[in-house]
Amino acid sequence: MASHSIEIMILGALIERPMSAYEMDKTLEERNVRRWIRISSPSVYRNVIRLCEEGYADGTVVKEGEMPEKTVYTITDKGRERFAELMDEAAALPARVDFGFLPVLANISLVDQKTGRALIDELIETHRSTAERVDALIPAYERLEARATMELCADTYRLVAKHLEQFEKDLYGEA
């Protein structure tokens, strides 16, 4: 079963315009969706077919000139209802924070202070540099939604770095 995020992205793309799974995959790639939603190319294809089977989209095989046949998908009324339902559900979910480095912090007291400071400093630098890299990408996005999402990501990386600085001071005192 696909995550609701994947369904939202696929149905949202089909609301914008009819498209093939290949075009949808390229659209998600261009919008850098994979930075925050785990959705592989095969997953796009699998899920758009499943959404057709469930009545949320229709597929029509078309042939354009010398190009091979392709299936162009459109959203159905049932798909629009599902999209609205998923958007409501997703907006009501509590925010989930799942940082891969949390086990390091949970076990930081098990290493000596020098090692602990080095680990925390590395985390701080990683988050700062990631924020800078994301900031550099933002001007390339034409869509306000994409820019806003990337700004939120960059701000989150900066916030984590700031929190880690305070954590290090609280744990070890001033350097």
Automatic annotation (TrEMBL):
Protein name: PadR family transcriptional regulator
Record-annotated Transcription regulator PadR N-terminal domain positions: 10-85
InterPro entries the UniProt entry points to: Metal_resp_DNA-bind_regulator, Tscrpt_reg_PadR_N, WH-like_DNA-bd_sf, WH_DNA-bd_sf
One Pfam family matching this protein: PadR
SUPFAM superfamilies (UniProt xref): Winged helix' DNA-binding domain
Chain segments annotated as transmembrane: none
Species of origin: Enteroscipio rubneri
Gene3D superfamilies, sorted: Winged helix-like DNA-binding domain superfamily/Winged helix DNA-binding domain
